[in-house]
Amino acid sequence: MSTFRNQGAHSSRAVWGRASDLVAALRQRLTWAWIREYLPWVNSASVRRRAAVVLPPYRRVYTVRRAILPFLVFPPLCLGCLIYGFFFGLNAPYLIVQFAAPIGVLALLSIWALPDRRAAPTAGIEFCFLAFVVLLILWPDYLAIALPGLPWITSLRLVGLPMAGLLLISLSVSQSFSAEVARSVTAIKPLWYALCGFWTLQCVSILFSHAPAFSVNLVVTYAINWTSVFVVSCLIFRRPEFVERYMALLCLLGAPICLVTFLEFRAQHILWAQHLPPFLENPSDPTFFHSLEPVFRPGTNVYRAKATFKTPLVLAEYLGMLTPFLLFFATSRRSLSIRVGAALMIPVCFVVIRMTDARLGLVAMLVSILVYGLAWSYREWRSRPQNLLSTAILFASPAAFMAGLGVVFASHSLNMMVFGGEAQASSTAARQGQLGMALDQVAHQPWGYGPGQSGGAMGYGEGSFITIDNYFISLILDYGVIGALLWYSAFFIGIYSAVRYAFGEKYVARREAQLLMPLGVALCAFLVVKWVHGQYDLHATEYMMLGMISALVFRLRNDRAAGLATEGS
């Protein structure tokens, strides 16, 4: 009996062995060359035409698996598209962001699969970047194209999205471009790590949000307006003349802003509030009507101008940010007209800031003047020790600083400008109360509540106009303790790098080092302002400054680039 069993098992193994050999032989014979030989229709002109559209360095590989795969994938893909279209028609436009996510993923995959090219479309990136900076200052962000069934199309999205798309396309199609960008953005490695960590934390914090669609929209907006601006800045501003041009551009854009502010303060209302076409109105957004309403200081009934910005605080922040650049051009060795124009622009900005009735603008100007004066005198003393003026200013700075504080405390009007009075006491108390509430909420959830959820965590009602007067509160509530540390670390690293290379003995006489000084002072004033101002309307300019610092440090570290910079100056 066992003999028959052994013979049966042996015969079954033999049958399975022959079957395996037959399958292996068929797999060897069933090649694409064999199919084309015995199936003439496969070797038609249509196949040759399809094969001709493959771009180098790619080539078409013919296998049985690749021939069968479309027939296995196409029917499920069609079914998925039908289901997607059905639910899109059922839920649009309420869930348009969620339904746009697969399209965005497919677009990113298409960009990743693009063939290599010798040159990247950098000209388009530079043009979009220039338009982005101009529109950020001159065009009110709350005036956007609001068409039925479409998302709110702002001016920054119209130029920022193409800029980010061209950047991704350039990184995908050009290896040399990718290598150059990598060298620029990693010139200050701690800065790049902090920014990457913060962006990663922004994406992860979406999981903790009570409104994921709103948080995703914010993260995408931040990626375009902040992260892509930093990367593009690292690429564009490796030429020092471009840094000077954009500094001058920010100052020149301040001239029409000041003119609009004078006219608005005289009219006591937003100039274009009653002259908007219907396609620029968005009644569903509460910030739209709030931005168009005139603002008066409670208690004094003083009108607070805001020009093209949403609030008077943003206008004051912008004008205060211009002070280091105006001082740079006023103290530079350029033509007399440029120095006089920059010097005259400083008191004009002071008057316009007074029209906003915002203390943070005056504080930014005061910090910029004191820090820049000290930095300029130290730099001149290091490069030209025989200069008596810089030496006198440097060693008299401590006494001048204490004398300035004494004047501010002694003068009632100056004290009111800087520290405020009874009319500003309510806003000061509100900031202190918000800080205490925020710390209590952070103790319950130290990892954050998700992007854009700080208002809800503070107890503001849904749909209400949310204003938080301290950006530290927004950071720590949205992204937790780690997010706040990463964000502040990026700017502290940028300031440290600017100071280190601006005053180093090796670089003190170079053009790049001279440009680093006003950038570091502007970031110092920015961090002071963010302690009393919670809006992020101008953060794109600060990320641009970080990119400028990274690009200039890259040139200083690169001996060849430094030589070119010295020759150009």
Task: Output the keywords.
569 residues; mainly alpha; two-stranded antiparallel ribbon; 73% helix; disordered N terminus; disordered C terminus
Explain what you see.
The chain is mostly helical and 569 residues long. Helix content is 73%, strand content 1%. It has 23 helices and two strands. The protein has helices spanning 2-29, 32-38, 45-52, 64-91, 96-112, 122-138, 155-173, 175-185, 189-204, 212-236, 240-267, 286-292, 312-330, 336-356, 359-383, 388-410, 412-419, 422-444, 454-458, 471-502, 511-530, 539-557, 559-568, and strands at 295-296, 303-304. The chain has a two-stranded antiparallel sheet with strand order 1-2. The radius of gyration is 31 Å and the shape is globular. The model is unreliable at 1-10, 37-52 and 560-569 (pLDDT under 50).
Summarize the structure in short.
By secondary structure, this protein is mainly α. The chain has helices at residues 2-29, 32-38, 45-52, 64-91, 96-112, 122-138, 155-173, 175-185, 189-204, 212-236, 240-267, 286-292, 312-330, 336-356, 359-383, 388-410, 412-419, 422-444, 454-458, 471-502, 511-530, 539-557, 559-568; strands spanning 295-296, 303-304.
Topology:
Layout (H helix, E strand, L loop, with lengths): L1 H28 L2 H7 L6 H8 L11 H28 L4 H17 L9 H17 L16 H19 L1 H11 L3 H16 L7 H25 L3 H28 L18 H7 L2 E2 L6 E2 L7 H19 L5 H21 L2 H25 L4 H23 L1 H8 L2 H23 L9 H5 L12 H32 L8 H20 L8 H19 L1 H10 L1
